[in-house]
Structures are given as structure tokens and as C-alpha cells.
């Protein structure tokens, strides 16, 4: 058994300097910048009735609900034909 495990580890490689970590960090940073914007700026990208895409809170089903509020921004990036740029913030500039 030990031989099989060692053989498998010999076949593994680690990919480094691929840029994915940096891309994820940049995405997190620009998303945090968006959520720090004033409410009126974020509301430019508000969800439309009965949809999930855009800025808002998708889990509020009625005005009488009592919830801990949590903002969200739901976007459809792929496939590209389904990408609705109406919901993609222009501010911060690097978001798009």
C-alpha cells in the first residue's frame, strides 16, 4: 500500500506563479470597495422584482419577516451571452 501511495505522490506536481491567487485577491478587494459605497450608489444595481441577479437581499419574502440583514451582489458571469451588464457596477472602476 505504501508503495502505491508513494507512486501517486511522485506523479503529482504543484503549479506555482499561476496568478490565480492574485486574481482572487483583486476580486475580493474590488468587491469590498463596492459594499463600502453609499446605499444610493449600490441601489443603481438593485435586483428587479422576482429576480435574484443584482444588489439586494434575495431571502426577504415579505415585509413582515424579521431577519439579520445581509447584503449581496449576485452576478451571472458565464456564459457571456447571459451576462447582464446592467447589474455589473461601474464603480469602483476596476469592477468590470
Automatic annotation (TrEMBL):
Q: Which domain of life is it from?
A: Eukaryota
Where does the chain cross the membrane? none
Which ranges carry the Non-haem dioxygenase N-terminal domain?
A: 14-91
Top EC class, one word: lyase
Record's keyword terms, sorted: Iron, Lyase, Metal-binding
Q: What is its EC number?
A: 4.2.1.78
Gene Ontology terms, MF aspect: lyase activity; metal ion binding
Protein's name in the database: (S)-norcoclaurine synthase
Amino acid at each position: 500500500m505504501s508503495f502505491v501511495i508513494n507512486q501517486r505522490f511522485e506523479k503529482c506536481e504543484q503549479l506555482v506563479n499561476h496568478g490565480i491567487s492574485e486574481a482572487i485577491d483583486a476580486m475580493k478587494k474590488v468587491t469590498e470597495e463596492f459594499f463600502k459605497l453609499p446605499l444610493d450608489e449600490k441601489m443603481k444595481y438593485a435586483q428587479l422584482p422576482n429576480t435574484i441577479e443584482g444588489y439586494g437581499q434575495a431571502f426577504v419574502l415579505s415585509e413582515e419577516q424579521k431577519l439579520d440583514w445581509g447584503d449581496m451582489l449576485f452576478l451571472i458571469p458565464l456564459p457571456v451571452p447571459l451576462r447582464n451588464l446592467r447589474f455589473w457596477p461601474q464603480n469602483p472602476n476596476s469592477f468590470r
